[in-house]
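Colleagues,

Please find the record for the two-part complex below.
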Amino acid sequence: MMGGVWTVARQTFSQCLRTRVAAVFTVLLAASLVALPALMEGDGTLAGRVRTFLDYAFSVTSVLLSLVVILLSVGLVSRDVRDKHVFLVCVKPLGRWQYVLGRWLGVVLLSAVLLGGASAGIYVLAQYLRGRSDLAIRPEDRRAVESEVFTTRRQIAPKPVDVDEALAARIRQKKAGGTWDETVEAYKSNFQTSQTRAVERLIKDLRSSVVASAQSVGPGRPLQWDFTNIHVVGRPVQRAGVARSVLRQTGLMTVQTDPDLVSRLVIFGPVWVKGVVGRVVGIGQGVFRASFHLEDMRSEQLSRVVPGSPVEVVVEPTIQISYKVSAADRKVAGALQAAWKIENPTTGFVYDVPPQEVPLRRQATLIAPARAVDARGNLRVRYFNYSRASVTVLHDDLAVLYEVGWFETNFAKTVVLTFMGLMFLAALGVFAGCALSFPVGCLVCFVMLWISTTLRFLTEAISSGLDYPGQDMVFLFYLGDFLLKLMRILLPDLVSTLATDFIVRGVEITWAYLGRTAALTVALRAVILLALACWVFRRRELARVQV
Amino acid sequence: MGEPSEAVVVTGGLTKVFRDFWLREKVTAVADLDLEIYPKEVFGLLGPNGSGKSTTLKMILGLLFPTRGRIAVLGRRPTDVATKARIGFLPEESYLYPFLDARETLDFFGRLFHQPRAQRRRRLEMLLDMVGLSSVAHRRIGEYSKGMQRRIGLAQALINDPDLLIVDEPTSGMDPIGTKQFKDLMGTLAARGKTVILSSHLLGDVEDVCNRVCVLYGGRKQAVGSVDELLSQDSLTQLTTDRLDEETLAKVGAVLASSGRLVREVSAPREKLESLFLRIVHDAQRKRLVTGGAVAGGPVAEFLQAPGEARPPEHAGREVIEQLVAAAGEEKQAPAEAAPPAGEPAEAPKPAAEVIEHLVAGGRETPDAAESSRAPREAKAPPASRKADRSVIDGLIAESDAGEDRG
């Protein structure tokens, strides 16, 4: 039964390879990939350059292959019907569903080959960029590219802010002040809506306001977040070392130790020397330099350390805290000052990060020892605003990350996700080809592609439109809302298959995410489309009237 | 296949109405067509353009769905996969994939029939040889001339050794060599119990190969029956003999007049242009002149022949020729030098009886030979009710014998 499908698939693959469309796109793809590393500089750092390259390379690959897949899959079936090739194929002992599936499978095979080639190219070029020592000027550049790009990290978001209490207090305050009814009336008048809708709208706005204020902090005040479900893998590594230099006034110590242990250190990451934690500020060949608090330098463990003293060095697994700080006042520029406390809620261990500069409106990373996470996976992070301006750290911009695997695994998952999107598009194209002519089928597919990639944006736009029902042409928003709901059932969110955001940030694509996307994007919608295609093609008269 | 007496194709009240975008009835292409086509028949569908021939064929093939009526092909629905495994189809134009070469094309279609690799390869080579495209099999179909595309189209239609072969305008674009070979093939297939349905404008082709025809006009059946029944002119008798001089003609006229018959026409038969063309091409091939096109087709592929016929083609051809030459020497007193000299390489294989007799007759085709190309032969035997009145002929022979005795 599948023999027929495979025969058509083989023939389709061979046909596609001989089609100029595939050849032209392959050349374009190859040229783009080769040119990208030279053209893309990102933020000037090596990590930024690699990230930008990965982002653009996967995007270009995905866009070009999407176009190829749509053009080929629509054209294969519709042109077979137009040019009457189906007369010869469909009178052979081949079910029409076998023909449709074979066409789809052939395009999928071709896209797998093209995507495989493109992915190999992207990987090789990314490794080439990674190895360019002339681009990693500072040690932290090297650290960033290794620990934030060429890695796979699990990302944990902070527990959501509990604003119910604050919201209730705000409402109580308004009612007590006698402004509640006045505001509701103003909402009713402004939005030309009912009492109920006006109250809903007011509460929604108040909630947004409370959430915003919960994420902002004034000068000298702290912000606090709690994290759960952090399970860092890895064990501490302990080696003997020798102190090479000790600068008590500045808190700096240089230690020579096992190169294997040094290779595990990260710039600005923690290191324990004689049981006292410090921050790595320099890494050399079998040697590193750490910075300690001045009080710690006077502690019992370190006060007797002199050059030549044997010391015990321990490197523990680390976690990263990714954050972005914005100033409420847009006029504030440059860097801000802040200190951090990373706390273990159970043991009371605190990893202090002394006041230092934090970049403004740019994602930054802080490294802390995994010891700050308790056995149940809980962690508390506090931010102390040492600036004169009020700052905001949005929940969406804050996450704890820790290494869970290899870059290659994540890279492969990214490729698989892209491939799933292409499988769906091939099904969409074959369906359009079964029902429509080539130009109309292509048009439909491109519109569907556009909708499925902008589904999130369109949903937000329509729902915000529905929040203002008083305006003209409101029925269009209701119609749009209905159509979008229909589209959400029929079409997958193709942005979820374009996983460049994961690979660029070195964030793990979980098996659950992969499985969910596979199930909802390919297994469900592609199968539905293919079934529809088979049904349409089975009922279609392949010959035309010629009387 | 079912019982031999069972119809291979049955249609009852078959109607096809074409509608426009708004589902308004536009035209009735086929109306209440009742047909029964039996095994061993070469059945012709005749009619002017737009008479519903192709529409009927496409409904039989499942490419169009009837508006009303029923249709059974080999006892099943036309779209049934098992049915399609026993059907071969040659459409009116080449709908082959132009980017594939001939070998890839046949391999692809062979795979669709789930043929084992070895069988597929064997048949592929035999068919390429049969249609004369072995030497150009590496070229893409898109580069082929129309006639060459027809040839490869015919090959793909035969790759499954079909029980039912459906051909639409089969000789359109084919040169006379291909046309003649096609006609021979139809005879071979019918002799093996296969059924052929043929649609054509070329009445000569239909007359040559079909033993039953249906004439359509406006989508309706106008006439159906065997070719002999439809074409016979029972009121006339045609006699072919050696050239007669004026005196003998006068005698014949007198004898006929004495029996109350008139001589309506006296003429010397002309050779057919087809025969002349074939001879020229065969001569060119014997001299091995270079051509970039198709060469003369080879013998009918072994798997398409009746079991007893299967043998190496060159030997089979030579033996048949030698046997026929010997028989001709004994029975027809044909000149011995007309046969190819012993030891000379056999020219391009010509399995058809017509070509063989053409050789026997020293390159000139006789009316008998032309008649012999009609296939299948047994189907052309005149019915018992149409026997000519032999009394006048017997009288002529008797008078001639008496004259010679007197001489």
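Residues 310-388, 403-407 of chain B have pLDDT under 50 and may be disordered.

Comments are welcome before we finalize the supplementary table.
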